[in-house]
């Protein structure tokens, strides 16, 4: 068996308590007696509950495409008629607090954190007597909690910190913590995961579980995000200059010899090559109408394309709001580069045989591997790849005055796999970030990279001037735009508990 972690299990509803009725209370609802202590009776109950925490990753690919890729210079989707939430994201709209994408992301992440906290609060030697298993469960839950909080701090800046279940009344007394305080919990959780999780799993049934290397890769990403210049006073970049700490984690992954680049870029995303040697951590999906397929794939292609190519219950982006891959990123690819042809679909015919001129992300789409509907794509989603490890190391070396020959070698290793045999010499920081842009197009990293690098405002301002033919994107992009609006339903929970982020 494969892909253990996204199975919907009815009992998870018992574990997580009364979720829907308490979303306005930060999803930290009190746990019913049947849903907590009475549920955790044996080791299998904790494995079931842990699967419920992993299930929270379902929305990860969608969140990062909509809030990172669409926000960046990789995607141009101003909207032509109706206004979708992702059009407002693309357009740097300053009235985002009432949108469903803001509230769904915030509530979803806190729901996931509640699940992790409930599991951790009930985990004990009395029930899980096997110490190795108990420690591994704790490590996995803490890895996931760290990942959810890292998303929150990158999207919203200051957020409330809950490291254990609380009642709604208790939640009403807990305000937003400063960003360094949020990072303290994230780093502590990841350090625990590094120390207590195995480097790999030998059973296919465990593929997709967090490992010590996954935690190292995420911790490196955390250190690098913190190290970026502090452009926004409450944003995720703090100017901490922890490049050396990041390098320590990245070198441990590289020196393990457990990972490598696959020979062909397309093979990373092949439906018959999942869990390959390039994957440090990914999100597992199934197909076959079991309710655990990858809905994220349909967030890229146009609805008309889906219908004309036989995708059942096609879904896709709306006719008035295509998510067009930008001309700027397409022009950045070298003629020898294989990544643009594989990653981007250029033009298609609709059901009437009319040519539609558009460009969209297709690296996750295989028309020979369709599920029963648009929610049912099987392909796993990569969160951390080995090429990311290599390019993060090049970035950290560049930022810390590292050896230029080593920087060049790391970047050229990734470029060579992409088909570019002419090496770069004296690779600059800007060139590293552009290489990341091409390597990870459509993977939800670009906006985070721009914020971390301190390049977001200048890059997007220049891009809007060149790309925005519809004149719908804000022309006064500034530091306030580096994080998103606190959802209106959270501001309304209790007057004065939270303050809106500046600019919204």
Automatic annotation (TrEMBL):
Q: Which family does it belong to?
A: Belongs to the SusD family.
Answer whether the UniProt record assigns the keyword ATP-binding to this protein: no
Localization of this protein = Cell outer membrane
Task: Give the superkingdom in one word.
Answer: Bacteria
Species of the source: Echinicola jeungdonensis
Main location per UniProt? Answer: membrane
InterPro entries (UniProt xref): SusD-like_N, SusD_RagB_dom, TPR-like_helical_dom_sf
Q: Tell me what this protein is called.
A: RagB/SusD family nutrient uptake outer membrane protein
Q: What are the UniProt keywords, alphabetically?
A: Cell outer membrane, Membrane, Signal
**Residue ranges constituting the SusD-like N-terminal domain according to the UniProt record:** 45-224
In this chain the RagB/SusD domain maps to 361-504
Show the Pfam families listed in the entry: SusD-like_3 (PF14322), SusD_RagB (PF07980)
